[in-house]
Specification:
- There is one protein chain.
- Helices cover 69% and strands 1% of the residues.
- By secondary structure, the chain is mostly helical.
């Protein structure tokens, strides 16, 4: 009896969830290899794809992500058919967030951009949901290898001068992608330990760090590394001594900040802006974005609404921040910004406390899994990716950039394991009758993805043709721009550029090239993207130089008032005010306008404005009707 008791004591049955884990692993192993290979290849394509001539080379990267989403839906449908697809509360929260994004279009200031946001959110939701179930060692190694190979190719692009920053358009964007990709080398290095490939992984890691330290003008890595050092030091030393952990963390952060604040520059080229020039405009944008959120704190301004609302708050920070970035950076960056340069704050402004609450509920439900991040190399890599991107998101917008956002979705999925793993609070079993519905939804999703991708491709190609014919054939450029909007009306920059294209053609002509009703129609198309300063400036300039401002007095007052509220950063507004002063025969206002213009430009007049400014100065001598008539053609 005693020996039997000991035998029963030693023989412990595995938990039910573990048996489910094994059985489902067998199902997943039988999944068509073509799907698994296609998933890894589309990750590689997203990181490396480049389309020269597009207004942003990064735009091309959304096409393989849409393809990736289609493959994910087909894979989920296959698992549902085999009876291995289980759903938990994290999946439910993910789709509730998607639902909230979709319904927020109804109160968005730019519903077209809201639809674009919803499309992309749906794409990433499907990818996140599948990757939570793609956690077998062979699969994670395959994904890590695809990310590593793509990163190596992009670094090679940098060396061969292919595209702007390897096809990422901006040095900050390439920096964000490299930082997000680096943690994926960790599980890959473990997977290839003992083989000759590990030296390639180490070499790639060294290449990434070397580029970021010495050949990248971006300073984002300092903030990211500071946060990661604090986290890792705290996590691994806190068990022994909180004092040592705190002291080590403070020392690491202080060292990084000291280097940055003292004006670390890229010694290879030495021609980038100082730390102050990067920080102050972001501080101003943070205040303005926070005030945007306060307009609708609970519901948010809606998907795509932030960019359309932000122009109303471009100078709102002046009441709260006495330091101005004008002397450090100039007026260009802040005025041209179409993002908060803080993705977390922009999410709050777009989707309000409701959206943030849904995220909070998801964190609470997944907390046990997050707390157990040390249990596998994939969990460690996932947490580092999430921390990296979220740190970036405090000063930039990596969660709006396709490659960085894809890596974030995969990292988050690795951190939050699938329902088949132990520790999940609740799992929903799909009944047999419900499984075909997943297949039906998948087919609809794939069809929508194909339609979206084709429309997106046509729109981007047409817009690329518009850019290429900028100075060659202006009427043709206007036609290409119109075709881009017709193919893909959701892109705000297409709609804004439509009016700019028309006015550029008009400025280059001695007479007006289109009737007033066409100006009105094209302006209304451009205005759907929000009251961006450049768009309003062009409209007001047209109303003044065509003398229609005398008839359309209400519209004239509206746009003039809004532009004057932003005039502390936009010297061209004062040039236009000078033209209005000539029209109104107002010498005092003309003097004031020229004085403000000179202060804002620092006496450096752009070449395309020099003729108008010279004529305005000449008008100060004597404002007669005859001189006004001679001056106006030059002012046009």
């Amino acid at each position: 009896m005693k020996s039997a008791h000991k035998l029963r004591k030693k023989r412990v049955s595995p938990p039910v969830l573990n048996r489910q884990h094994d059985s489902q692993d067998e199902v997943i192993r039988k999944r068509p290899l073509l799907l698994d290979h296609a998933l890894a290849l589309t990750i590689f394509a997203t990181i490396t794809v480049f389309a020269g001539g597009w207004y942003s080379p990064q735009s091309a990267k959304w096409l393989p992500i849409a393809l990736l989403s289609s493959i994910c839906w087909l894979t989920l449908a296959w698992e549902a058919r085999r009876g291995s697809l289980r759903i938990d509360w994290i999946d439910v929260i993910a789709f509730l967030l998607l639902f909230w994004v979709a319904i927020s279009i109804s109160w968005s200031a730019d519903p077209l951009s809201g639809k674009d946001t919803t499309f992309r959110w749906a794409i990433l939701t499907s990818i996140f949901c599948l990757w939570r179930r793609r956690t077998l060692p062979l699969q994670t190694a395959s994904d890590s290898a695809a990310i590593a190979a793509g990163t190596a190719v992009v670094i090679a692009f940098l060396g061969m001068q292919i595209g702007d920053y390897g096809g990422y358009y901006n040095r900050n964007h390439i920096c964000e992608m490299l930082l997000a990709a680096t943690p994926f080398l960790f599980p890959l290095a473990i997977a290839v330990t003992g083989t000759r490939w590990r030296w390639g992984v180490f070499a790639l890691a060294i290449a990434i760090v070397t580029y970021l330290m010495f050949f990248s003008g971006s300073k984002i890595q300092f903030a990211v590394w500071a946060v990661l050092v604090v986290f890792l030091v705290s996590a691994f030393l806190a068990r022994k001594s909180w004092r040592k952990a705190a002291a080590a963390s403070i020392a690491c952060v202080s060292a990084v900040l000291l280097v940055v604040v003292l004006g670390w520059e890229n010694f290879a080229t030495g021609q980038y802006n100082s730390f102050r020039a990067s920080f102050l405009p972001r501080a101003e944008l943070t205040i303005d974005s926070f005030l945007v959120w306060l307009t609708k704190p609970v519901m948010g301004v809606g998907a795509g609404g932030f960019t359309a609302v932000l122009p109303y708050f471009k100078d709102a920070h002046a009441s709260y921040l006495n330091i101005s970035s004008d002397t450090a950076f100039g007026h260009g960056m802040h005025e041209a910004a179409e993002a908060a340069h803080n993705d977390i704050l922009q999410f709050l402004a777009n989707f309000g406390l409701v959206g943030v609450s849904l995220v909070g509920v998801g964190i609470c439900l997944a907390w046990k899994n997050i707390a157990a991040w040390q249990h596998s190399p994939e969990r460690i890599a996932g947490l580092l990716v999430v921390l990296t991107v979220l740190t970036n998101a405090l000063i930039e917008f990596p969660m709006q950039m396709p490659a960085s956002l894809l890596l974030f979705a995969i990292g988050l999925a690795w951190l939050l394991p699938a329902p088949r793993e132990a520790g999940v609070r609740r799992v929903f079993e799909l009944s047999r009758g419900f499984r075909p519905a997943i297949g039906f939804v998948a087919m609809i999703a794939v069809t929508v993805n194909m339609w979206w991708s084709w429309s997106y491709l046509l729109g981007q190609n047409s817009f690329a043709n518009a850019i290429s014919t900028h100075h060659v054939d202006r009427p043709k450029r206007l036609q290409y721009n119109a075709k881009a909007i017709e193919s893909y009306p959701y892109e705000a920059i297409f709609r804004r550029q439509y009016l700019i294209t028309l006015m550029d053609w008009d400025f280059a002509s001695d007479v007006r090239v289109v009737p007033p009703e066409d100006y009105d129609r094209i302006f209304e198309v451009a205005r759907t993207a929000g009251p961006e300063t450049g768009t309003l400036f062009l409209r007001l300039h047209y109303l003044v130089t065509s003398d229609q401002y005398r008839v359309r007095t209400e519209e004239f007052r509206r746009w003039r008032s809004l532009l004057l509220s932003q005039s502390s950063r936009f010297p061209e507004v004062w040039m236009l005010e000078g033209i209005i002063a000539v029209k109104e025969n107002d010498r005092r206002h003309l003097e004031h306008a020229l004085r403000r213009y000179t202060v804002l430009t620092g006496g450096t007049i752009p070449e395309n404005q020099a003729g108008i400014i010279s004529m305005l100065h000449a008008e100060l001598g004597r404002l007669t009707d005859a001189e006004q008539r001679r001056a106006m053609p030059a002012m046009r």
